[in-house]
């Protein structure tokens, strides 16, 4: 979308680092924040940079306009049906880039919070489900409607089925019916429901609170949470026990325990 003042195209993703929190804002409101290749690439680049920035300790993903994200950009996809290969190369590349973003979110050391203000559809629902926490406005809706256009939401199903019970995921995938924020919270897709007017402020406050913890403890915890989640029980406890030992040997654990016993505020060194 052109910038009326400069004639330049507005960035598809806006990043703002404030203190220890990075905020990524999807900025294609006229296209319902569809995940074009340009937006996927911008998300990938931002997440790569954030992952290596030790000064950043939490991330918020939000969106401009009334829609959080409508999924893949269907106009961009449709344009490639006329390719010599019927669009095969483009579709494969698009799905690979999207999968890379969805895997980068749990892989970055910092916790990632989605602030969903409107409809999160298909890969937009996938984007929310991939995040560590989801805050939803009261008017937010979540939907995986691909089956209605003959395109089952197979890739959104990956993140969705890891965020909610399988039968709840299958109901969303097979019926294509949108669920409201209350139902999304009931099945575990959403952590908190907030008035739309305060969604961004509440997301920023939560991110700042998390960023105020020991970065070492939080990042070690996130990494090992995801590692153990898919393991059998005995292996999960092996991973978790090793993580606890690693954490106990860190300076911040000694500081935190000492501060607790001494009834004072801890002074984190993040190591």
TrEMBL record:
Gene3D superfamilies: 2-enoyl-CoA Hydratase, Chain A, domain 1 (3.90.226.10), Lyase 2-enoyl-coa Hydratase, Chain A, domain 2 (1.10.12.10). GO terms for molecular function: hydro-lyase activity. The keyword Zinc-finger does not apply. Belongs to the enoyl-CoA hydratase/isomerase family. The keyword Transit peptide applies. It comes from Muricoccus roseus. Keywords: Fatty acid metabolism, Lipid metabolism, Transit peptide. This is Enoyl-CoA hydratase domain-containing protein 3, mitochondrial. InterPro entries: ClpP/crotonase-like_dom_sf, Enoyl-CoA_hydra/iso, Enoyl-CoA_hydra_C, Mitochondrial_ECH-domain. One of its GO terms (biological process) is fatty acid metabolic process. Coiled coil: none annotated. May play a role in fatty acid biosynthesis and insulin sensitivity.
